[in-house]
Amino acid sequence: MDSTDRRLLTALQQDGRISNQALADQIGLSPSPCLRRVRALEERGLITGYAALLDRTKAGLPITAFLRIKLANHAPATVSGFEKAILRLDEVLECHLTSGAEDYLLQVVVDSQAGYERFMRERLHPVPGIAAVETSFAFGTVKRTTALPLD
């Protein structure tokens, strides 16, 4: 990946809907080489997709919770079963395997405190292998970005 690729990726992270012509103008390429480079970045897996970023509150999901999950054991069946179950929970935006006292960190969005209780009782508690859950609620967001620092 050279500096032109980095500039392309930075521009696309800022505006994934930018036209190829505008992108080429911004980067200083002609449209054909610009498009070839973007396609090559997609084929190499650096660009994994494009998405619309939504306002969570306006979408009706104003509650963000961070859950620290400790598994009962680390047997392959327990770990695999947990991870497969988490993939099916739409409320879970992110699930990270972590070091430390807990095994996983989840970011969850719900519509209300009652919605969080329903998520816990009906969706998460039935997942086998969970020994403990600790939850922290976000009161606000200081920074949220999807852009990687490619300097």
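^ that was protein a. below is b, sequence first then the tokens
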Amino acid sequence: MSISKCNSFFGRGGWTWASRVAKVAAVALLAGCATTVPARVTTFQQWPADAAGATWKFDTPAAQRDSLEYREYADMIRSGIGPTGMVEAQAGKPARFTVSFSYGVEPVQVRVERPAYDPFYGPWGPWGYGWGGFGYRGRGGMGFAWGPPYPPTWTSTTVDASRASLRVEIRDARQNGQKVYESTAVSTGSGDSIPQVMPYLVRAIFDRFPDTNGQVRDVTYEVEQRR
């Protein structure tokens, strides 16, 4: 389901209570309707103090050297490294830091709360006037009925989802190739499209680079809608 369709879908009715909105957001995320991308970032680092201005290069696995997908993600990471102050080494030139990354997606199952029946129609049809007043009978024919509509009941259920991940590692030649940085960003949602979520995983890793050693943090990014 596209974001524009999701906005239209969730725009029906008068669901304005904060608790309901929170639950709808959780359901939307796993229904492919999310307008945000959440990620959990775990970082470990022993970043040298004299890294500013130092050169770096990719350590590309032989199996990935002809991969167009890998190159696309490498460009994203290159953009993420730019603001750190390091400079990419020219082709064929030595560099102090080597950067490697890996990525993937795996199917998972997660538990979510969702309405036990259609919250937009309920027992009487759709309504948009909140508690009290009139309730419009959209399915049962024209007419109005006094009294508040029943709120939807919620049930916990297991749904299929996917978990996309990106891991970035950096090694320092001045420390005999020792690893000085490693960070993993993970996002769980519907679908299995790594290209769509990868820009946000890269942002999650580099937004606070090099971050605090042993830091685990949750971030959320607004989805950039394509016109």
